[in-house]
Amino acid sequence: MTEVRWDVAPGERPTIPASEREVSSGFLVYTIGLLLAVILTITSFWVANTSAIWPPGVPAGLTVLAIAQMGVHLVFFLHITTGPDSTNNVLALAFGLLIVFLVLAGSLVIMANLNENMMAHTDLMNLHMQR
User: What is the pLDDT of residues 40-72, one digit of tens each?
Assistant: First the structure.
């Protein structure tokens, strides 16, 4: 029989042989994640459409709910934990975020440069009329 390891990092489950594993625990984790995601989504729509919240505070509330939504997805669906088995997942996530940041920043730099060097519509019309 394989040895059961109980010296695992917080958030990680111990390695249990397949014969002793509970089948429903995975289903329970995904169900809890789904319920939390649905609750956060409904709350976001409520925050965006209610008059009970001070209007300048709505973007801050939506930002907090979005960060909470990302946390729920990372923990319950992507299984990003503090355990040693999550190292590759965290590195892949960090690399993906770096690529997204580079693409967004590069696009903004390109668009700002194009906007700066673009000829105004009135100047373009005057140029055509002078010909």
Answer: 999 999 999 999 999 999 999 999 999 999 999
Structure tokens at 80: 């990003």
DSSP letter string over 61-72? HHHHHHHHHHHH
Q: Rounded to whole angstroms, how far apart are CA atoms 107 and 101?
A: 10
Rounded CA gap, 15 and 83, in Å? 12
Phi then psi for 5, rounded to 5 degrees?
Answer: -100, 120
Cα 63 to Cα 96: distance, rounded to the nearest angstrom: 21
72-84: pLDDT as tens digits: 999 998 888 887 8
> What number of residues does the chain have?
131
Tokens 């809890």 found at: 32
Structure token pair of residue 69: 């939504």
